[in-house]
Design a protein that fits this description.
Layout lengths: L5 E6 L8 H10 L3 E6 L9 H8 L3 E2 L5 H6 L2 H6 L3 E7 L1 H9 L5 H8 L4 E5 L3 H5 L1 H12 L3 E2 L3 E4 L5 E5 L3 H15 L9 E6 L3 E3 L5 E3 L5 H12 L3 E6 L10 E5 L3 H11 L4 E4 L6 E3 L18 E3 L3 H6 L8 E8 L3 H12 L3 E6 L11 E2 L1 E5 L2 E4 L3 E2 H19 L1
Parallel strand pairs: 1-2, 1-4, 2-3, 4-5, 5-6, 9-12, 9-14, 12-13, 14-17, 17-18
Antiparallel strand pairs: 7-8, 10-11, 15-16, 18-20, 19-22, 20-21
Helix pairs in contact: 1-2, 1-9, 5-8, 10-14
The chain binds cytidine-5'-monophosphate.
């Protein structure tokens, strides 16, 4: 996957720079071409000579070096690559990237590039969890910067926590996944997925309806992320303003009954993700003419809607191998999510806090917990798009092992 890929490796000033020589070796073993940009800080931890010897190329350090600029300007440097990889990415370089600063060769190349960027953060745990760093991370993710790690463990500063740069194999795997995706292959090639998204509208009469709040952002992002991993995706969506993601087949529906029918028609599939906010009730005997406003408000008789997630999770010959539901909760998030997983017989539940102030409804970010048979994973607050990517990666891992 990395054969002949050109990687501009930007080495910033963190102790994890000592892992960079091994990273270069492993990348070159896989046929990648590596060219290094070394910051002043980076040069405190690893020498330009080491990087030059291992990469087999000149190491670029100075923005205003006459020889560098005449041989290769920072613009060309940043464009003659298939990807820019910042490893280690310090809190400082992340802040500079987020605010668009360009005061040395590394940051100038990062600002001037038209190529994808991946960062492997590395820093002290307090620096990583600091709201400033987390805000910068969100800004970068929002701009489609790929992030690998950091992991948790012993840190060089003597503290323990999140902030360890991902190990070399993880960085290589992330790069491979990235190139797989862009080449339209992907680990989910050959798998079929059904994703429900958006609200349902249950008519009261010709003009009025009952609905749940849902923008469809999360469900649509999941459909897009699964397609990027190579799956053949049918997106069954209620009314939303979200654009249909590329490479996804869409079935537009209004009611829960229609959503269930469309899902069943899309079977068989190996993967189902129910992210729709389905209305629990429909109005019995909803007519096609508009109810006139009278003296007394009309009494609505509600009837239960089908539970799409539970229906698709029920044992049977067409039961997809992996069925995933969402649980939007305001209280006792994890307990309720676990109970929901059991009651609906689905495999995983993505639990998200939608209490007032969480910003989940209609917003771009989500704080979720993945509840599986093995336990609960707490994910950091991420853009809905990043939640979807992470979920799609977990699904791909599951598919690799079990399907
Ligand atoms: O029961 P509750 O609505 O909280 O469950 C949420 C999960 O169940 C979501 O995955 C949602 O898409 C799914 N669901 C469904 N059909 C329903 C109600 C919920 O598929 N009628």
């Amino acid at each position: 996957m990395l054969e002949n890929k050109r990687i501009l490796l930007i080495v910033a000033g963190g102790i994890a720079a000592v892992k960079v020589p091994d990273l270069i070796r492993r990348l070159r073993e896989r046929g990648a071409h590596v060219r290094c940009v070394l910051t002043k800080g980076g040069a405190q931890f690893v020498t330009p000579l080491t990087l030059a010897a291992l990469s087999g190329d000149k190491v670029y350090q100075d923005l205003f070096s006459l020889t560098d600029e005449s041989e290769m300007g920072h613009i060309r440097l940043s464009r003659e690559a298939d990807i820019l990889l910042v490893a280690p990415a310090t809190a400082d370089i992340m802040a500079k990237m987020a605010t668009g600063q360009a005061d040395d060769l590394a940051t100038t190349a990062l600002l001037a590039t038209d190529k994808p960027v991946m960062i492997a953060p590395s820093m002290n745990a307090m620096m990583w969890t600091h709201p400033a760093t987390q805000a910068n991370l969100l800004t970068l993710q929002n701009r489609e910067v790929k992030v690998v790690g950091p992991g948790a463990g012993d840190l060089a500063c003597g503290e323990v926590g999140d902030g360890r740069m991902s190990e070399v194999p993880e960085i290589i795997a992330a790069l491979s996944r990235f190139f797989q995706k862009t080449q339209g292959q992907g680990p989910l090639a050959g798998f079929r997925a059904i994703v429900t998204s958006g609200p349902t509208h249950e008519p009261i009469d010709a003009v009025r309806y009952i609905a749940n709040r849902s923008s469809g952002k999360q469900g649509h992002a999941v459909a897009a992320a699964l397609a990027e991993q190579g799956a053949k995706v049918t997106l069954v969506t209620g009314p939303t303003a979200e654009p249909v993601p590329d490479g996804v087949q869409v079935q537009k529906v209004e009611t829960a009954a229609q959503m269930l029918k469309a899902c069943q028609a899309a079977l068989p599939a190996e993967i189902v993700v129910c992210a729709a906010a389905v209305a629990d009730w429909k109005v019995e005997g909803a007519g096609v003419s508009k109810i006139k406003k009278g003296k007394a408000p009309p009494e609505l008789k509600l009837a239960e809607n089908p539970d799409i997630l539970a229906t698709l999770s029920a044992p049977g010959k067409d039961r997809p191998a992996l069925v995933i539901g969402f649980a939007a909760e305001t209280d006792n998030l994890i307990e309720n999510a676990k109970a929901k997983r059991a009651a609906k017989q689905c495999d995983w539940i993505v639990a998200n806090d939608v209490s007032p102030g969480s910003g989940a409804f209609g917003g771009d970010s989500n704080t979720v917990h993945l509840v599986t048979a093995d336990g609960v994973e707490n994910w950091p607050t991420l853009k809905k798009r990043a939640v979807a990517e992470r979920l799609a990666e977990r699904i791909a891992k599951f598919a690799e092992r079990n399907l």
